[in-house]
Amino acid sequence: MDRQAKLGAAREAALKAGAMLLERHSFHIENKAAKDFVTDMDKASERMIISSLRERFPEDGFLGEETGVGEKKDGMWIIDPIDGTTNFIKNIPLYTISIAYMYRGEIEAGVVYAPALNEMFTAVKGGGAFLNGHPIHVSDVDQPIQSVAAVSFVHREPEVARKVLPQLGELVLKVNDFRRTGSAAFDLSCVACGRLEAFFEPCLHIYDIAAGVLMVREAGGRVTGWKNGPDCLISGHVMASNGLLHEFFLNSLSLE
Ligand code: 2AM
Ligand code: CA
Q: In the prediction, which pLDDT does 195 show?
């Protein structure tokens, strides 16, 4: 399989969909569930990405946030057409398009594109990670008190929030500070390029994180599930770091 060809196609599809999102045509907002919104731009972005990729790779399968999973194939495209939909709706520039290519369960290529920031993060397995074509690497901060981590307030899962928020209250005293962006794909990309030392959020979906997980790993960082749990691509509970501080963050938080 030609990973660079997959990456090139993902990049092209993300650029096309990103250009459409930047135009911000009047859009309609629907409530998928409490605190879970979707716009017709999410759906249009996903349709555009899938049709662009399907033209090049008709043999591949697709799993998208808005259309769900189609026929299962060895090669699957995992697509989040707007990660950070709330930011998109509110015209906060922290939203991304996330596209990953997975072959027999392994992530082989990924792009995370933030159109409003003009930032294109790319990675192929074994080939490193890049921001707008320049190689990126995780930070070398190894002291918790110097670290900045992106967090989640677990605002859609009351039971989990009641467990995690008190732990965040303790943890923030041991680090420099926290950030909350609202786009998991962007947070993972920020760990990859060394802006953040860590990112952790439980209860995510594979399409939120598949591309970003490869980005962090290819940039020299570490991504796992939460303490004593399976990998984040199975559990949806993401723990990402620059590697040096991984055990510190892993041991500071628990879902049990
Ligand atoms: P989205 O913007 O594509 O919906 C922010 O907490 C992160 O959670 C974002 O990456 C967001 O992706 C994701 N998210 C949104 N709705 C979710 C849901 N119902 N369950 C889990 N994750 C969700
Ligand atoms: Ca998402």
A: 98
pTM reported for the whole predicted model: 0.97
Give the mean model confidence (pLDDT) for residues 16-31.
89
- Among the atoms of ligand 1, which is closest to the Cα of residue 33? 19
CA of 1 to the centre of ligand 1 (A): 31
Q: What is the CATH number of domain 144-252?
A: 3.40.190.80
For ligand 1, what atom is nearest to the CA of residue 82? 3
Question: Helix/strand/coil (H, E, C) string of 227-239?
Answer: CCCCCHHHHCCEE
Structural contact between residues 199 and 150, judged by C-beta atoms closer than 8 angstroms: yes
Distance 119 CA to ligand 2 centre (A): 17
The phi, psi pair for 143, rounded to 5°, reads -110, 120
Q: Helix, strand, coil % (nearest 5) of the chain?
A: 40, 25, 35
Domain segments of the chain as ranges: 3-135, 144-252
Class of domain 3-135: alpha beta
pLDDT at 32 over 80: no
Q: Which residues are within 8 A (CB) of 146 and not within 5 positions of it... i.e. 6 or more apart?
A: 176, 197
